[in-house]
Amino acid sequence: MNIAIKSILIFLVAVSFMSCCTEEKSNQNQPSVISPKTVYLVLKSLGNPFFRDIQTGVEDACDSNIIIQVRSGEDESDIIGQTQILESIVNASVKDSISGVILSPSSSGGELLGYIKQLQNRNIPVILVDTRIDSSLLAQYNIKPLPFITSSNIDGGAQAAEFIVSQLQKGRTSILLLGGVESQETAIQRKEGFENYLKTVPIKYDVKYREARWSRIEAQTITASFYSAGMKFDAIFAANDEMALGALQATMNKNILPKPIIVGFDAIDEAKISIHKNGLNATIAQNPKEMGRKAIEILDSIWQNGDIEIANYIQTQVVK
To answer: What is the pTM of this model?
Structure first.
């Protein structure tokens, strides 16, 4: 090979090498395209402002790379509706990329666990908000512990009882306790906290309990039926504000005097307005927006590091 041809070949190889290096460097400088993450937010109901506030907290905590798909049951006890929603999410996960599920379960029982197990098998994290699922049931389905975010519901129930006791005059001891859905841990704990506090005081209170299933209409009907039977109460504790407002409406409709002390739970705007207008006497404030924000924070920690923070309690306080 003569010197001229050899020189040309060396030049071409050098140019080719420089071109490859330039192209590689150029590719390295290109901004990486981040695929959006789809997260399903499955709530008990959007009819209660409390759950709409959870949604707001979730959405406010998201950046533009997270797409939130919101689903809910017909009402807070609609476990069949939630079962159908989770089934559709599991089916969608076969062909679509789903990065997480934030779930406020309508039951603490085993109705949803088959679908949660399928999501875990596909490495889709599930975060529980507001209501936990019994840990012994999780073990039965071989489900890894699920992170959960909730208020300190036992403490909140105790705060409601403490407020009522502080307001009742001597000799006034009749109390109506309106509970949520009995299969839900949230309802169980608020009732437990309320009743346990009453056991610590020297006065014996006569407590009538009824399940009103978180419903304003059911609470109004139950309270009105007691009044129609000639029974009055010195105080009413309802395990959410919807039921407290229903009890208040029944009291107003029947023109019951003296009006019982009425305490709710959740501190929705309507309840706070009612307190300002001397309707309800108090409500126990949660922070649903913080619950939603914390759910996204936990998901992000799982995505980034695989870290899971299991128990997250948001403190409650009395609004009066």
So the answer is: 0.82
3-state secondary structure of 40: strand
Q: Which of 199, 225, 231 is nearest to 212 (CA)?
A: 225
b/e map 155-164, b = 16+ CB within 10 Å: bbbbbbbbbb
Q: What is the mean pLDDT of residues 276-289?
A: 96
Q: With contact defined as beta carbons under 8 Å apart, do 116 and 126 qualify?
A: yes
Q: Provide the residue range defining the domain that includes 112.
A: 37-151+288-313
Are 98 and 41 within 8 A, CB to CB?
no
Q: Tokens 């309270």 — which residue?
A: 223
- Does residue 162 contact residue 144 with C-beta atoms inside 8 Å? no
In a shared domain, residues 127 and 227: no
CA nearest 133: which of 77, 85, 204, 184? 184
Domain total in the chain: 2
Q: Give yes or no: residues 108 and 190 share one domain.
A: no
| Whether residue 147 is found in the same domain as residue 188 | no
Are both 190 and 175 inside the same structural domain?
Answer: yes
State the pLDDT at residue 308: 83
Query: Do 251 and 219 touch, CB atoms closer than 8 A?
Result: no
Which pLDDT belongs to residue 33?
56
pLDDT tens per residue, range 13-49 = 444 434 433 344 444 555 555 689 999 999 999 999 9
173 and 130 in a common domain: no
In angstroms, rounded to a whole number, what is the distance separating the alpha carbons of residues 143 and 136? 10
Residue 206 in any domain: the answer is yes
Question: What's the rounded Cα separation, in Å, for the pair 149 and 104?
Answer: 10
Query: CATH no. for residue 58?
Result: 3.40.50.2300
Q: Residue 14 falls within a domain, yes or no?
A: no
